[in-house]
Amino acid sequence: MRARSRIAAIAATLTAAALICIPAPAGPAQAETHDVGYDRYSLIVDGERVLLWTGEFHYFRLPGPALWRDVLEKMRAAGFNGVSLYFNWGYHSPAPGEYDFSGIRDVDRLLRLTEELGLYVVARPGPYINAETTGGGLPAWLKTVPGRARSSDPGYTRAYREWLAHIDPIIARHQVTRGGSVIAYNAENEYAANTDAAYMEDIQRQARAHGIDVPITHNQCCDASWTPTWASGLGAVQIPGVDDYPQSFECREPDTWGTWGEGVTERLSPDSPVYAAEYQAGAIDVNRAGYGQCRELTGPGFMKVYYKSNLAASGATMFGYYMAFGGTNWGRLGQPNDVYTSYDYGAPITENRQLTAKYDEFKRQGLFVTTVAPLTKTDPATAPASDNPSVRTEARANPDTGTQFVLVRHADRKTDGDESADLTWTTPDGTYDLPVRLEGRDAKILMAGYDMGGQRLAATTSELLTHTAADGRDIAVLYGTEGVAGTTVLRYGTRPDVKVLSGSVKTSFTDGDLKLDYTHKGLARVEITGGGRKPLLLLLGTDEEAAEFWRSGNTLIRGTHLVRSAQTKGDTVAIRADLAKTTEFEVFTSARHVTLNGRGTRTRTTPSGTLVARAKGPRPVKLPALKYWRGEQGAPESAPGFDDSDWRIADRTTTVSPIKPKKPPVLYADDYGFHHGHVWYRGHFTATGSESSVELNAITGKGGIYQVWLNGRYLGSAAGGEQKDADAPVNENPGPGTFEIPPDLLGKGEKAVLSVLVENMGHNDDWTADDVRHKQPRGLVNADMTTNPVTWRIQGTRAQDPLRGPLSTGGLYGERNGWHLPSAPTRTWTRTSPSRPTTPGVHWYTTKVRLALPRTQDVPVTLHFNKGKGRYRALIFVNGWNLGEYVNGEIQHDFALPNGILDPRGHNTLTLALITEDDSKPGAVSLTAAGNVRGGAQMTP
Ligand code: GAL
User: Fold this and answer.
1) 575 lines ligand 1 (CB under 6 A)
2) Given CB 3.0 to 4.6 Å as the disulfide criterion, which of 235, 473, 742, 877 pairs with 201?
3) How far apart are CA 805 and CA 331, in angstroms?
4) Distance 765 CA to ligand 1 centre (A)
5) What are the pLDDT digits (tens) for 455-481?
């Protein structure tokens, strides 16, 4: 079924009354429009099949639009031809009716960037997105709106239609059909529990009415055994896809294998392509092993076996790898049950934008799948016979070209043994007996019957990285495991001239077959001319050598740390590249001159007919020590005389939260409009004199704490409650704390005030669409201390910060008074240091940091916390932005300070709000460089 027919059908059913109309933003600059369709094999743009190879990127986890370019260019360089983007409702909407798409929230800019970079976009605006974001992307204000979220309840319907009316038109004007980048639109997210088909249908009706005309998709959790799949019936989408996380999320055991199964994406519909909507490319660190181990759990071995199995077994042509770059839960962006500040995810690109071994494997696979067009249309085919039952083969072939794709893997997917086999392989060009070998956790996709530019690749036991044409010849790169033998057979009309330029390659010619035998080692080069075909430079390398190559357009480059782009104009190729060290690099091009990051370079021509130039690496950098601090006490609310007369009185008696208070009043922070960060309570009462303890109960979300003072005396702290996903129905007694009252503290008939500081670690998600999790309260849920009446006052965030948004600033005294901002009047603060011993409470520290990092280098900076003694935590503010929370004793010690927020060539204000539960001795803090390259996204051709 082509997209357009269904769009017309849906459009016909629209009723104007169901729509909220927001004036459409200015139209796209692009003139060119395209048709987007699909059939059972693939997406089709203007009649051309597309294999969509996307990685997930969360713009909201990288609060610096200038860095979006860096990550997206790195993704493109790894061979991704698209990016999958959640749009986070709560991130844009601080209050009902209020939406912000400016600055770090300028998704129009993000979509323009994808257009400029030539990346397709799968737009995923929810309304629910999960993604381990606070509330799963639902705005916190929705907690006070009656009506079950993710259903067609009228209260929720009004709310989500408002969001779609804002986000859809932005997405719509960037569609491929209007000359933009958006090729598909995903409705909802893993909508599998407590489903409501009318709601699912309405999201799509809204989208169509707002101008979405690309295919609508859905990502089904977690394999097709979950129902509904939204493949048919009311609420069905055009292209249903499947999410799959076969390695699970137990990063403490990085050697485990396939905990959640085979991971082969299933076909959900006979009429649309097989879509691996979210395929595991990392993991959340649920059990705090560290993201390094998550990266191992989902490392190159896993990627080879699972991704290639998926390609060659299911014929999927649409992929979304979750995550390509994870980023940071800066501010209060994270959902506290599963994640902490870092959302690095063990992804191929680290939180600090560094490339990893997983990036190399993505590049090997990404260049392959986006080079070889016959992969876009394949059917199951007869696989070559293997003479070793431990080596299994599976095959698919393109019905039009006959090109075969053979998966070679261990029969026992879990083994890491060393197995060899002889394959008897009937290809379109003849039958071949070829040896193969698998060492360790490995799988290969071998090809036969492929028209490779001007060449005919009959069969190969190496894997194809990519091929191109430059300088009047074809250039192809094949690769295999170091030390393992490979054979490649090419067809010629007559015997060609073969020159082995480097390496050791044996060749023979029989009946039109040029057979090359070699062992993968370093990079061998073979020049083949004559034989009735265009000349060919064949490069035969190891996995590692393959990862040295970059491709931009028709240009291949090897040796630089990264190539962002290569553009040929006349006889000059302009390369934008990053250099991690001083090195030579090689350019496979028709051009005669090379510029690197805008400057001409001297080149020499190699015997392979390529150009080699030398490039300088980065200068070492030194970051300043953080020596000069000033400090101020930050919990005056704990003092009995503190003036709280302008605080709100907490006297509500009802709430829409599923957790009801045992007795009034409702003390929940959200019910008073305080949704993020810390909240203070002050309970005023007249003492009876017989009070002996205070019994409190608070929900903070996992990892949060609350602290209690009575008449200025610190009574202690307790862990705030959490509602775990597994806990249903809701917890009766979520975050209990009993605090003894010292006998001398309260006198009969005397005024008393209890001050309580409650942290809010973020809101739970709504994975099961039942409201129980995301609508659970934050703040005090119960308080018992005296038989006399208590008047409660509550205070959270005071003023919204239009630049940084609601997730950045909470309700600490210092935050309410702008102490976290660079403009804070901190000159009067006392000279001190954040690693001095300190007492329970809130302590602010600030220092100025002048950086002078080289303009031509990209140096991501992190803030490192040494482990200290005691129970304390620190909110980190850089130039006013809350960039996360260090919790002493927890796993994360290094915090990303993204350039853009941090000025790498200017003055910065670093401020810490240290929250101490006991007499602590905090560890030292310092700046570290998480990388250093010459180059960076700012380098222009
Ligand atoms: C998926 C979900 C994503 C994310 C992921 C785990 O089920 O769709 O949003 O939560 O799991 O990181």
Assistant:
1) no
2) 235
3) 9
4) 11
5) 999 999 999 999 999 989 999 999 999
